[in-house]
Design brief:
With 189 residues, this protein is mainly α. It has helices at residues 6-23, 30-37, 41-47, 51-71, 80-97, 99-109, 126-137, 146-166, 173-187.
Length: 189
């Protein structure tokens, strides 16, 4: 058996992201991915047990990158509100700078392929959960679960970003500022 070639694996993952971005989940086959990645269809199964395993792996890697990126903004010396705004701005920056990855995870979340209760991204929620717990203890934030907090705080942003990415338009700063304030108002005590 030949050793795995990490360049092939990365090409397969990028082809998967590109095709889900361009066509959605339903329009993809191993043949289309292999053609775009310039590998044989059989090569995909050297790296992934199945197409579903490939989708889940790529999704988990993107979410790990995303949560690691936004968590870097957290700072114990800042207020809960400033940390929230930092997270929100970092989420906006990551998603707008990585539109294909963002749309990929959005489409995976809206499919039956990804089960959020079993995904391996929960460890990446820990810094956000810590902020939430500090905010709850200080009576700055509403007592929400981490998942609920992420949904309430970031879903409006994700919806707006998705619409703007798909229409290839920009979000105007006043709209972004208004949405960020509305998200803060939704989670604060």
């Amino acid at each position: 058996m030949r050793p795995k070639d990490e360049h092939k694996e990365e090409r397969i993952k990028q082809a998967c992201i590109d095709l889900v971005y361009d066509y959605g989940v339903e329009g993809i086959s191993a043949g289309k991915i292999s053609e775009k990645a310039n590998v044989s269809s059989a090569t995909i199964y050297i790296y992934f047990e199945s197409m579903i395993n490939m989708y889940r792996t790529v999704n988990e890697e993107i979410l790990a990158e995303y949560f690691t990126s936004i968590a870097k903004t957290l700072n114990n010396k800042k207020s809960i509100k400033d940390n929230f705004y930092g997270l929100w701005d970092a989420a906006y920056a990551f998603c707008s700078q990585n539109p294909k990855k963002f749309i990929f995870t959005t489409r995976m979340t809206n499919s039956c392929i990804v089960d959020p209760s079993t995904d391996n991204v929960k460890p990446f929620h820990i810094p956000i959960a810590d902020l939430l717990n500090k905010g709850i203890q200080s009576k700055t934030l509403k007592p929400l679960s981490t998942v609920c907090f992420i949904l309430v705080a970031f879903s409006p942003l994700y919806g707006l970003l998705k619409a703007h990415i798909e229409s290839k338009s920009q979000i105007e700063e006043p709209v972004k500022a208004l949405l960020k304030q509305a998200a803060w108002d939704a989670v604060k005590q």
